[in-house]
Structures are given as C-alpha cells and as structure tokens.
Write a structure and sequence with these properties.
Length: 155
C-alpha cells in the first residue's frame, strides 16, 4: 500500500487544492492532507479550521492532519512513501524542487510534482482572500463550505 501526503498551509483550501488531492487519490492507495500549523505566520483560518474544511469536502475518503515542525518528521510518523506537491508556475517548480531535495536529504522521502489542472491553475489562496475581502465573487474558486467560512470570517 502506497501512502502519499499532500502538505500545505491551505489558507483557505481552494479548488486547486481539491483537484490535487483528488488526482493523488486516483494514483495512491492512501492520501493524507497535512495542514501546516505555523504560529509565526498570520493565517485567516486556524490550522484546525483549515483541516475541518478539508474534512467537510472529503469526508472520510482522505485522512486530514495538522502538524508543526518539519514536514518529513510528520511524514515519517504517518508512514508516508511520497510527498505530492502541485506546481502552477516555473517559480513554484524552482521553490518546490529545492524543498524536495532537502526533504529527500533529511528523510529519503521522494516528492512527486503534479502540474496543476489548467482550469484551476490561476487560483491561489492569497488571491481568493483578496477577492473575497474586496467583495468579489469567489464562487467556483473554492468549495462551497470554504466560501461560506470566508464570508463569515470577513463579516
């Protein structure tokens, strides 16, 4: 059984993140969404809230965890065989390649890159939050549960 981990801050989860997890589910036996809890960053949603939003979307079809510290330590604890990262741009590729090399150096765990599906390649959490803050429509950019949660946060 091959276990993959899709890590990220996911603040908030977008349809791009959902697409990545769904595609990973089609390839791997077990998929874990790992929400990074980084207290030094200002997030709109807590790590627990972000994890709960994934649970609403996926139910029990994927495992959702939160963690702080090194990704590879959490991945080893969970018995992960491969880390899966989505790539939107060449800048993403450069950054994620460096991280993949470091993660492999630290743990031996390989990273697999999945290019983002074209229909969601322009979506980022930061853009979604900006559009929502400015009163624009985020319908179709995030799952409905995330859209409702964002509206509630911004009231």
């Amino acid at each position: 059984m091959t276990t993959a981990m899709c890590p990220g801050s996911f603040d908030p989860p977008t349809n791009g993140h959902i697409d990545l997890v769904e595609r990973a589910r089609a390839v791997f036996d077990r998929v874990i969404v790992a929400v990074i809890d980084n207290p030094s960053k200002r997030h709109m949603f807590t790590a627990a809230e972000r994890a709960d939003l994934f649970r609403v979307v996926f139910g029990d079809t994927v495992e959702v965890t939160t963690f702080s510290g090194l990704l590879v330590d959490h991945a080893r604890e969970k018995g992960v065989d491969v880390i899966v990262k989505g790539i939107r741009t060449t800048a993403d590729h450069e950054y994620e390649t460096q991280m993949a090399h470091m993660n492999r150096h630290l743990s031996g765990i390989e990273t697999m890159f999945l290019p983002t599906s074209p229909d969601v390649s322009f979506i980022s959490s930061s853009l979604v939050k900006e559009v929502a803050r400015l009163g624009g429509s985020i319908t179709g950019l995030v799952p409905q549960a995330v859209e409702l949660a964002l509206k509630e946060k911004l009231q």
